[in-house]
Design a protein that fits this description.
Blueprint: H1 7-11, H2 14-27, E1 30-34, H3 51-57, H4 60-80, E2 84-87, E3 93-101, E4 104-114, H5 121-131, H6 137-149, H7 155-178, H8 189-200, H9 208-215, H10 219-230, H11 234-250, H12 257-263, H13 269-280, H14 284-296
Antiparallel strand pairs: 1-4, 2-3, 3-4
Helix pairs in contact: 2-7, 2-11, 3-6, 7-14, 8-9
């Protein structure tokens, strides 16, 4: 019996952090993978968060308003099961995209915090008036700077960002379906622990000896058990995990193939090219071009 994939399983996948970092680097826009249910507190996007949003959320009115906008976006994405675009009180756009697998809402991609048009002094005066009660002059100076430094995204670029999120949402759903941390409720502990070991160290050299020492069973027993439980050898599984990581990195146009090869743990370009074509059905360069074309159409 296949075990249901939970949000906690999804966010533990190394590919999630890799993609979030690549997305922020490629677009300049923050991204957070959040639970499918409505959060009771405002989402913290981390180091890449819009500076104005951070300052605004530090005020009582701003924190309440931000939380309401995010809850509405996530709620509508869950209910309608399609991407939602919501404008916040400050005029920024928030995007919520559901990650669906087999009809289940696994997670929501929360992004945005951008302007769709140039803000004006009048816009800032209204927002500052709403948030300014009890704030110091120094706060307003910082808020003004951050407000007018917020990215203004054209319709074409915004559509590309949404399409990039869509690619990731579909990819996550596919990845979760095929490479869940615990694929079966009946999966032996040795196999589950070995998978977790591989996923956490995919970028490093991995040997069979390391695995059997980690799971405390003999080589012969482990190889037989792993093949029976997963339908593949340990070497095949390691390659698949590394390929999935490489696929997420290939979406970032600023990364060279050579950088991706070593970040994904392959060690050599010929080995990477051969494995990638075997599992994906096309060379890495062609896959990258295909993903790029999806964003531009």
């Amino acid at each position: 019996m296949v075990k249901s994939v939970a949000f906690e399983d999804l966010v533990r996948l190394p590919v999630v952090q890799d993609y979030v970092a690549a997305f922020r680097k490629a677009t300049g826009v923050s991204l957070k993978v959040v639970p499918p249910d409505e959060a009771q507190q405002r989402t913290h996007f981390g180091p890449g968060e819009n500076a104005f949003c951070t300052l605004a959320a530090g005020t009582r009115a701003g924190c309440v308003s931000c939380s309401q906008v995010e809850r509405r976006a996530v709620h509508n994405a869950a209910r309608k099961r399609v991407t939602q675009q919501v404008y916040c009180y400050a005029g920024l756009t928030v995007v919520a995209m559901p990650v669906m697998m087999d009809g289940r809402h696994l997670a929501t991609l929360l992004s945005g915090q951008v302007f769709r048009r140039e803000p004006t002094e009048r816009d800032f005066a209204i927002v500052a008036g709403m948030l300014g009660e009890g704030t110091a002059a120094d706060w307003e100076k910082k808020a003004r700077k951050a407000y007018f430094e917020t990215p203004v995204v054209t319709a074409e670029r915004f559509q590309a960002i949404v399409q990039l999120l869509s690619v990731f949402a579909h990819y996550l759903a596919d990845f979760a379906g095929r490479y869940a941390v615990a694929a079966s409720e009946a999966e032996p502990d040795a196999v589950a622990n070995a998978k977790q070991f591989v996923q956490a160290r995919a970028a490093d050299p991995i040997t069979l000896n390391q695995i059997v020492e980690h799971v405390h069973v003999s080589r012969f027993y482990f190889c037989k058990l792993f093949k029976k439980s997963t339908g593949m050898t340990l070497t095949e599984y390691v390659s698949r995990v590394r390929i999935e990581k490489a696929k997420s990195l290939l979406i970032d146009p600023s990364l060279r193939i050579s950088e991706i090869v070593f970040a994904a743990g392959f060690g050599s370009i010929p080995r990477f090219n051969s494995a990638f074509k075997q599992y994906v059905g096309m060379p890495p360069g062609e896959y990258r071009a295909t993903q790029r074309s999806q964003l531009l159409t």
